[in-house]
Amino acid sequence: MIMSVRINGQRANLLVDTGSNQIILDAAAAASFGIKPSQGSLGYVRFTQVNGQELPVGFAQNLTAGSMSFGSLLVALRNSNYRGAGDGHVDGVLGLDLFTRHKAVINCRTKLVFLKIDQARQINLSPVAAAEKFTRVPLRRERNGALTVPCAIHGRPARLLVDTGSFITIFHEGFLKSVGIPVEATRVSAHFTRGTARKISAGQINDLKIGDFKTPPAKFGVTALPNFTLVQGGAGICGILGMDTLYNYHAIIDFDGMNLFLK
After folding, report:
1. Residue 156, domain member (yes or no)
2. Which among 173, 169, 7 is positioned nearest to 92, based on CA atoms?
3. pTM for this prediction
């Protein structure tokens, strides 16, 4: 899910990424927009920590999307090669700090993002979603800012990281084996931030529940998730809820009411 924006007046494509706490730009792309690492009062480059990495911070004078202006923003800079769907090049990611600040509603099926202008006006989506046969699942921000939802497999409770920046839903191999679900090898591999790569297996899950929403039996990706993914503010993370599942079940992420709606 890629959003077309303008950064310092220049066009850019940013991935809508609820798995990131903040806006992160590819360092080379940021330089082309006139953004470079900011220096503090003593001349030192400012840094921020992202998934255990120390990344330099830059200053974007202006960021706009459609008719919405976000003004000036601090952004993290990372040397990476983001890629969107197909041949679409991506210059970075839009993270949770922006979505929570503007009480965004993200429709993963229609790929539309709604941003609130009047912060004092609260919109209750629950009655509308219930009338359309959606199931409400409460969202939670962990201590480190990660966005998670409750889940259960074979009745064993855990939590899933809600990550629109992940193209597939993927479970931690150790968790699935602990509940007795066998996995089979595939030729697929996945790449995580910090350059971590993992081979992907597949596992058949017949009784996955996300909150009170029961998913049909299906095969899901399985791998040994990196520790920085599993450690999310003390929550027991068993996997990543990615865009394939969010799209298939018409997911709506509501940052005002802190709910995930699935159908």
Report:
1. yes
2. 7
3. 0.89
Question: How many residues are recorded in the chain?
Answer: 263
Question: Rg of the chain over CA atoms, in angstroms?
Answer: 19
Scan for tokens 């959606």, then name that residue: 134
Report pLDDT digits (tens) over 112-142.
Answer: 999 887 777 777 889 989 999 999 999 999 9
Contact predicate 203/240, CB 8 Å: no
- Quote the domain boundaries for residue 61: 2-101
End-to-end CA distance of the chain: 19
CA dihedral 24, 191, 184, 159 (to 10 degrees): -20
Instruction: Report which DSSP code applies to 46.
Output: P
Q: What CA–CA distance (Å, rounded) separates 75 from 91?
A: 12
Q: How many helices (H) and strands (E) in the chain? A: 6, 23
Chain segment 3-35, per-residue pLDDT in tens: 999 999 999 999 999 999 999 999 999 999 999
Each residue's pLDDT tens digit, 76-100: 998 875 544 444 689 999 999 999 9
Q: With contact defined as beta carbons under 8 Å apart, do 164 and 139 qualify? A: no
Q: CA-CA distances (angstroms) from residue 191 to 13, 70, 194, 209, 246?
A: 20, 31, 9, 26, 20
Residue 120 within a domain? no
Share of the chain above pLDDT 70, in %: 90
And the tokens for 177? 């084996």
The last residue of one of the domains, among 34, 68, 101, is 101
